[in-house]
Amino acid sequence: MIVLPLYQLTDTLSAIEAKGDYYRYLAEFSTGTEKKTAADQSLMAYQHAMVVASGELSPANQIRLGLALNFSVFFYEIMNSHERIIGVYKDSTLMMQFLKDNLALWTSELAGGASSYVYSKWGQRIREMGCRPYRASLLNTDFRE
C-alpha cells in the first residue's frame, strides 16, 4: 500500500471526483447507450473516490463532504435512486449537525441573544459522556492579554 501525503491525496481525490462530475454532466445530456456509458464511468469514479476518502479522510474533510454531495446528486439526477442518497450522507450527518447547531448559536449571539451552550441531541450526548459542549463565547476571548 502506498501512503500519500495529505496534499497529494486530496489532489488525487479532487481529480477522481472531477472525472465523476465530467461523466455525470455527459450523462445529463446524453441518451441511450451514450448515457449509460457516461453514467457507468461516473459511478466508477465516484465509488473509487468514496472508498479512498472513507478510508483516509475524516467525515469533516471538505473534499469528502463535497464528494458526498456530488455523488448524491449523481444518484438523484442520473440514477433516480433516492434510497442510495441516504447511504452517501450517512457518515457526514453528525458533522453537519454540529455545523448546523453552531450556526444557529452564532446567529443567535449576533442577534443579541445570550451566550449559551449548544443544546441539541448531540450536545446532550456530549454532556452524558462527562464533557462540556462547545461554548461559542470562547470565540470572543482575547488571548493576546
Automatic annotation (TrEMBL):
Which residue range or ranges hold the 14-3-3 domain?
Answer: 1-120
Reading the lineage from the top rank, the first entry is Eukaryota
Pfam families from the xrefs? 14-3-3
List the Gene3D superfamilies hit by this protein, alphabetically. Answer: 14-3-3 domain
What InterPro entries does the record tag this protein with?
Answer: 14-3-3, 14-3-3_dom_sf, 14-3-3_domain
Q: What family does this chain come from, according to its entry?
A: Belongs to the 14-3-3 family.
Query: PANTHER family, alphabetically?
Result: 14-3-3 PROTEIN
Protein name stated in the entry:
14-3-3 domain-containing protein
Instruction: Give the originating organism.
Output: Digitaria exilis
